[in-house]
Write a structure and sequence with these properties.
Layout: H1 3-30, H2 36-65, H3 70-101, H4 108-140, H5 143-152, H6 170-183
Bound molecules: fe (ii) ion (FE2) (2 copies).
One fe (ii) ion (FE2) is lined by residues 7, 11, 54, 58, 129.
Length: 184
């Protein structure tokens, strides 16, 4: 499995989490049954795995392919910029959520609006990488590139979707399993 396949699998997993977040957003908007602790678990996982590992790994991959093609360089630069924005917005959303959970006098609409924007931004980024950047990378990359990258890029077990779940993500893992059962 080459690095791009692994990143693609991360995208599938992230999409499942974004789906879970949109259910919570809908519940927040209805004013009924939103699970704020589940929301906090998802954001914590995104901060930990996506912002802390998936995006930095992509940044290294994109730097590796920089300078091969002008059009590709532009798209690579765009995605690296988006990673900065996404990380910043995860932090902001996390702070807002903590304030809400700690009973700060904060209108719930602040959380709802931030979450809505965050979801749209995350989805747009995933779609851009999957629909525009990854096909461009496949077109320029050779097998030798993937072999080199496989040994050079950092590698880490996914604490939620990997073979073993970290204790801190166990309730989120169970929520995902239930979500999957309901969908089938
Ligand atoms: Fe990315
Ligand atoms: Fe990505």
């Amino acid at each position: 499995m080459n690095t791009l396949h692994e990143l693609h699998q991360d995208h599938i997993n992230l999409n499942r989490l974004l789906e879970l977040l949109s259910h919570e957003l809908a519940a927040l908007k209805r004013g009924d049954g939103a699970d704020l602790n589940l929301l906090a678990d998802v954001i914590r996982y995104i901060a930990d795995y996506a912002d802390g590992y998936h995006h930095p790994r992509e940044d290294e991959l994109y730097a590796f392919f920089a300078g091969r093609d002008q059009a590709l360089d532009k798209v690579l630069g765009c995605c690296v910029d988006e990673h900065h924005g996404l990380t910043q917005h995860t932090r902001t959303l996390r702070q807002t959520l903590e304030e809400v959970l700690n009973d700060a006098v904060l209108p719930l609409t602040v959380l709802t609006e931030q979450l809505e924007q965050y979801l749209a931004e995350q989805k747009a980024h995933l779609d851009y990488e999957e629909g525009t950047l990854f096909p461009m990378l496949r077109a320029v990359a050779e097998e030798a590139d993937w072999t080199l990258l496989a040994s050079d890029l950092p590698s880490r077990q996914d604490p939620l979707f990997g073979a073993q779940q970290a204790a801190e993500y166990m309730s989120l893992y169970q929520a995902l399993q239930e979500d999957l059962q309901q969908a089938s």
